[in-house]
Amino acid sequence: MTARTVPILPETIALAAEILGEGGLVAIPTETVYGLAADAANPEAVAAIYEAKGRPRFNPLIAHVSSWAMAEREAAFSPLARRCAEAFWPGALTLVLPARPGGQVCDLARAGLDTLALRWPRHQAASALITVFGRPLVAPSANRSGHVSPTRAEHVEADLGERIDLILDGGPCEVGMESTILGFDGEEPVLLRPGGIPTSQIVEVLGRPVRFHGAGDGINAPGQLKSHYAPNARLRLNVTSPEEGEGYLTFGPEQPGGLNLSPSGDLVEAAAKLFAVLRALDARYERIAVGPIPVSGLGEAINDRLQRAAHREG
Ligand code: TXA
Ligand code: MG
User: Residue 309 belongs to what H/E stretch?
Assistant: First the structure.
């Protein structure tokens, strides 16, 4: 099987919905990264996702919805969670909420947890497909396990082209960084993964601090492995003078040269380009040096991904 890559059209959305209804896998664009979508209610289709990605274990997946009615059928919203959803949906925020007994997302997709990660994507094609399909789609990032997340259809083809049915090509992803994941410990918001919505914006909307998830925390955050976004190349961070033979990833006007994520110092532009630039450097170099990148705004998520990419287990 080799995936067909097709443009976004009413016919290709209908074709995608048909494939998903038969338990197939379709890569879809979202505003964050490309997702590998399957019917959230079909455990065999969900198992096929883990197989295609080569995931070492059953991490819980994000269920994607396209309406309030669909969201509320799956999960229970506290007043605080509702305020977050209303501020940022559709968009790059995933909320981990108590799963509702009558929900359609199968146990395997939740990895047996009694919580559910929910997101309403802003991308037109993604939400149109969910609406046509009529129920939630689970979709992890459409890369092989451990690889860098895909922000273009070509990245999906390179990683998973042989293993899936269809790729909807929506061009480059606008945000380029996975969604921010927020859970709740009682009424206290807990950041499970920094991402496309800066934490500072969430703090502002909620009018209260957001706790950073830590080891030994009461909250379950599976899948947050230290080494997660690993390219083949070795990464060194905060490097101001690269060594001979190293690829150089830079940011901002103070660091001309190398492959610059944003010569003007725009963190939004840098987030959108990060994974594509990492892939390009990884193809050419065995070692990559990364210049300093500020941690404000989206810089938090960018630095998080780079630290994971630099970390080697054992
Ligand atoms: O932007 C995104 O979030 C993309 C697009 C495709 O929507 N998806 C994505 O999915 O990044 P994935 O599977 O690569 O990452 C999902 C993360 C995992 O770290 C997983 O452990 C966490 O969400 N997660 C899912 N359900 C959870 C739950 N019930 N409790 C805590 N963490 C959960
Ligand atoms: Mg991923």
Answer: helix 299-310
Quick: pLDDT tens for 4-27.
999 999 999 999 999 999 999 999
* Distance (Å) from CA 59 to ligand 1 centroid: 8
What is the whole-number distance in angstroms between the Cα of residue 180 and the centre of ligand 2?
Answer: 12
Q: Is 35 in the pocket of ligand 1 (CB under 6 A)?
A: yes
End-to-end CA distance of the chain: 36
Annotate 47-77 with DSSP letters as a single string.
Answer: HHHHHHHT-SS----EEE-SSHHHHHHHBPP
In a domain, 223, yes or no: no
Same domain, 133 and 83: yes
Q: What is the CATH number of the domain that holds 256?
A: 3.40.50.11030
**Any domain includes 39:** yes
For residues 47 and 7, the model is more confident at 7
What's 140's domain CATH number?
A: 3.90.870.10
Q: Could you tell me which of 91, 90, 84 has the C-alpha nearest to residue 187? A: 84
Provide the 10 A C-beta neighbour count for residue 19: 18
Please identify, by atom number, the ligand 1 atom nearest to the C-alpha of residue 32.
Answer: 1
pTM, entire model: 0.91
| Pocket residue to mutate for ligand 1, from 49, 62, 147, most atoms within 8 A of Cβ | 62
The domain in which residue 8 lies consists of: 4-217
Q: Whose CA is nearest to atom 24 of ligand 1?
A: 60
CB distance 220 to ligand 1 below 6 Å: yes
- pLDDT tens, residue by residue, 185-214: 998 999 999 999 999 999 999 999 999 887
Last residue in a domain, options 172, 189, 217? 217
Q: Decide if 166 is inside a domain.
A: yes
145 Cβ below 6 A of ligand 1: no
Measured CA to CA, the distance from residue 29 to residue 34 in angstroms comes to 5
Q: Is the predicted pLDDT of residue 294 greater than 70, yes or no?
A: yes
Pocket lining: 30 vs ligand 1, CB cutoff 6 Å: yes
Average pLDDT over residues 130-149: 95
